[in-house]
Structure formats: C-alpha cells, structure tokens
Amino acid sequence: MSQKNKALFIIFGGTGDLAQRKLYPALYRLYKKEYLSEHFAVIGTARREWSDEYYQDVVRDAIQDIADSDDHAKAFASHFRYQSHNVKDTEHYHTLKRLADSLDEEYQLEGNRIFYLSMSPSFFGTITSHLKEQKLVTDNGFNRVVIEKPFGTDYESSKELNDEINASFDEDQLYRIDHYLGKEMVQTILALRFANRLFTDSWNASSIDNIQITLSEDLGVEERGEYYDKTGALKDMVQNHVMQVVALLTMNPPKSFTMEDVRDQKIHILKALKEPDMSDVSSPEFIRGQYAESEDGSLIAYREEDKVDTESMTDTFVAGKLTINTDEWRDVPVYIRTGKRLKEKMSRVDVVWKKTDNELFDESPTHLTIHLGPKEGVELFLNDKKIGPGMDLTPLPLRSLRSEETIEQSPEAYEKLILDVLIGDETHFAHWGEVAESWKFVDAIKKAWKESDQPIPLYPANSMGPKEAFDLLEKDGRKWVWNP
Ligand code: NAD
C-alpha cells in the first residue's frame, strides 16, 4: 500500500495549533506505519516568516513524544518545507506553485495533491479559488481539499461557503473533517448494529424505548473564549458531532460501506428529524445552560473566563429530545446532551430497551452502553437470576472495555482520516447534504432560544448540567442512564 500513497500535502495554517497538535503527529504515525514512505512531501504555509530549518524543528518538536528515534524524526521532518504566504496575495500562489512543482519532481509525487485548509473558514473561498486560478491544481494526479470545522455558522453561511468552494472543487474532491467520524468506537457503532443478529432484529421502535447520547467535557473554554463565545455548544458540538452520532445510531443499513450508500442513509435520517417543539418556553424540547462557579468555589463561572463577555448568553451546555419522523423511529426519543465543565469527560451512547411484555419479573430494562471515549468499549446490561430460592433478579453486566494499551495502539482519529484522504475513501467525512440538514435543524433551535425571553439556565461547574436537563427526561417518565 505504501508505494501507492504518493502525495504532496499543502497545509494552510502550518504554524497553527491544529497543525502542531494533530496533523504533524498524525502524518508521522502514517510514516511510521509506512503508509507514507519516501514519496511524500509537505509544504506548511502561514503568514509568519519561517525558514525550512526552523519549520522542521517545529515538526520534530510536535512529534517528539511519539518518535521512534531522533534520526527517524529527522528523516520524517526532512520532507517538510515552509513557505511564508498571505492567502489573499495572488503572487504568493505563483511562488507556492513553483515550490509544489519542484517537490513533485523531487519526491516523484505524480501530481497528487492534498490541500489541507487548517485556518479560519473565512479564507476557504479565497484559497480554493486561487488554487484553481493560479493552477496549483494538477492535471495528472488527484487534487483533494480537506476542510476543518466550523463549516459555516448557520445554514445560509454554510451554503454560501459551500458554493464558494464548489466554484473551484467538486463535492467528491472535498473532505470535511468531523473528527468524531474518525474515532474507532464511533465507526464501531455500525459493526455492532449491523453484524449482530441480536441487534439487527431488535434495533427498532418495537424493542427500543429510548436512546441517549452524552458528549461531556470536564474542561471549560480554556484559551478559546473568543471563538467559543460567538459559537456555543449547539453549534460547536450538536450541529456536527452529535448529529453524526444520531445518524449512525438510527440509519438503515447501507447497501455497502461506500460513501454514497452511507451518506444516503444518513441524509434520510437527518431529513426526517422533526423540528423540536419549543412552544412551551418553560420546558422546550431543547434546553441550554451555562456554567456558573462551582459549588466549592474552585472553578470560575463561564462569564469570568478570559475573552468572554461578562453578560454572555452563550450556551456552554445543550440537552434535547429528538424525534425521527420515520416509521422505524417515530416513537423512540433520542435524548442528547453535551457541555463544558461537566463532572467528567465522557462520550457515550446508552441504548435502552423496553421491558418484556410478560409480567413474570419486575425487571430493569436491558441496556447497551457504547463508550466512545476516553473509555472505549461496550457494556450490555442484562437481568440474571439471583442464586438461591425464588426467582429474584440481579443485574448481569457483560463488559468488554478496551485496555489502555489497546487504545494507545489504535490509530487516532486524525491519523485514520488523513489516511482515508490519501486513499480517496470519503465514507467517514461529512458530506454537504448532511451538513445542510444539520444546520437547518440547529437553526430552528437557535431561533427559538433567541425569540424566547427566558434567561439562560445556569449550572454549577463540575455538575451534570442544569435541572432542566433532568426535567426533560423526567416529564417523559425516564431518566439519564449515566448520572455520575
Ligand atoms: P490557529 O489560529 O492556531 O492557526 C491559524 C493559522 O492560520 C496560523 O498558522 C496562521 O498563521 C494562519 N493564518 C491566519 N491568517 C492568515 C493569512 N491571512 N494568511 C496566511 N495564513 C494565515 O488555528 P487552529 O486552532 O490551528 O485552527 C485551524 C482551523 O481548524 C480553524 O478553522 C479551526 O476552527 C479548526 N479547528 C481547530 C481545532 C483545534 O483543535 N485547534 C479543532 C477543530 C477545528
């Protein structure tokens, strides 16, 4: 495989946080596993004036914890060149093209190019049109564009952004990263659902009572206050990651794992989402929250964070009830919650079955927990007979959690996704139709919150969100399975 993976990566935003924290380590892991060999090169570009030597030092620093040896890190970093570049300056694209063409020849890359836009989306349209106009796009190899979130700030802006990019690149050349889709355990959802008769036969409205998705973070906004205060949890987490997980949990089996088949099934679900009922302002189907100081005073309130408006109404927490208007799912609520400064960092799915129809036992409903991260694995909770006389029940947890070593050795999301870009597999990326439907859904919630004159509910840092998040399930006679 390695010999086939020939490509020049041009990373816009090569000095940035994402490049250093995620992209260089991911590229190094691919190099270590020989998915990348001698035939690859990277041009990092950003505004700063850096020399190649300095850039290569930065790349080596970024991989120091995972490098096999100094020599191996040096050999890897020798494939990197730096080009100072202002994305708005046409002349710079000519310089970039000369460098790209010479690296193509030096490393025999056969015209394959991956343009990685690791910068503010406000530049995406400018960059992609210059790439086309100044002929950085080759005729002989593949040309792929990788885009980071956020893809727009609402449906309108995402459509505008998409139209701008589509003026120069087709949808099948675009790889919109949603790093959740690169997570091993998120991909595992499809295997669990579609490779086990136990689940294929009962993963439906006649057997399942409800599904719960929690993506909780224990950290606050850290140094991202400026970005986050304009964004909030609904746009930062629900529009992309949560909606993708919802689609994977409820989509019909695709005919195959090709991009087209998977995308069609996901879009079918996203299009069928009922607009949430927000008419009862005191208990709408989507509620928001913002963290206040922790009860013990050790964690500050969101509004006290650096670069956050002291009167901010930004949501640092969202919980909601989704209804999927299809015959398969109409009666099965999907409850979601995500937020910052919650008790624990955890991404998990809980699928709760209905009780049996017989009245022989006072049983607890069977449930399946899929741990997406940082804990990874699956737990199925059944009912067992208590040893001894009578027919009393006792819980029977069947647990398969991945060891730290296994997790450590599993490919990381960016590594998997960059490899997919290299081999041209678009299955695990967010396609325009999915992005568009998710924005429409999220826009309706945002609009309702804006129009309501309700204050944003506060929750103490280091809790599991505001009371309203618990009421949401209680009024349906349910509760969150995970309640740390
Ligand atoms: P960053 O601010 O650390 O880096 C931005 C990069 O863009 C820098 O290299 C900067 O020099 C360059 N740049 C800015 N203006 C420029 C111009 N006019 N011409 C040329 N270069 C210019 O940002 P980041 O955290 O690395 O994020 C990059 C993108 O990835 C953003 O769209 C962000 O939303 C997204 N993203 C980041 C993360 C993350 O963990 N950092 C996670 C998800 C998505």
From TrEMBL:
Record's protein name: Glucose-6-phosphate 1-dehydrogenase
Residues binding substrate, per UniProt: 179, 183, 217, 236, 340, 345
Function comment: Catalyzes the oxidation of glucose 6-phosphate to 6-phosphogluconolactone.
PANTHER family, A to Z: GLUCOSE-6-PHOSPHATE 1-DEHYDROGENASE (PTHR23429:SF0), GLUCOSE-6-PHOSPHATE 1-DEHYDROGENASE G6PD (PTHR23429)
Stored Pfam families: G6PD_C, G6PD_N
Gene3D superfamilies linked: Dihydrodipicolinate Reductase, domain 2, NAD(P)-binding Rossmann-like Domain
Active site (catalytic residues): 241
InterPro entries registered for this protein in UniProt: G6P_DH, G6P_DH_AS, G6P_DH_C, G6P_DH_NAD-bd, NAD(P)-bd_dom_sf
Pathway(s) it belongs to: Carbohydrate degradation; pentose phosphate pathway; D-ribulose 5-phosphate from D-glucose 6-phosphate (oxidative stage): step 1/3
UniProt EC number: 1.1.1.49
SUPFAM superfamilies (UniProt xref): Glyceraldehyde-3-phosphate dehydrogenase-like, C-terminal domain, NAD(P)-binding Rossmann-fold domains
Family: Belongs to the glucose-6-phosphate dehydrogenase family.
Domain of life: Bacteria
Native organism taxonomy: Bacteria, Bacillati, Bacillota, Bacilli, Lactobacillales
Domain Glucose-6-phosphate dehydrogenase NAD-binding span(s) in chain numbering: 10-187
Catalytic activity: D-glucose 6-phosphate + NADP(+) = 6-phospho-D-glucono-1,5-lactone + NADPH + H(+)
Keywords: Carbohydrate metabolism, Glucose metabolism, NADP, Oxidoreductase
EC top class, as a word: oxidoreductase
Residues reported in the UniProt entry to bind NADP(+): 47, 149
Residue ranges occupied by any Glucose-6-phosphate dehydrogenase C-terminal domain in the UniProt entry: 190-480
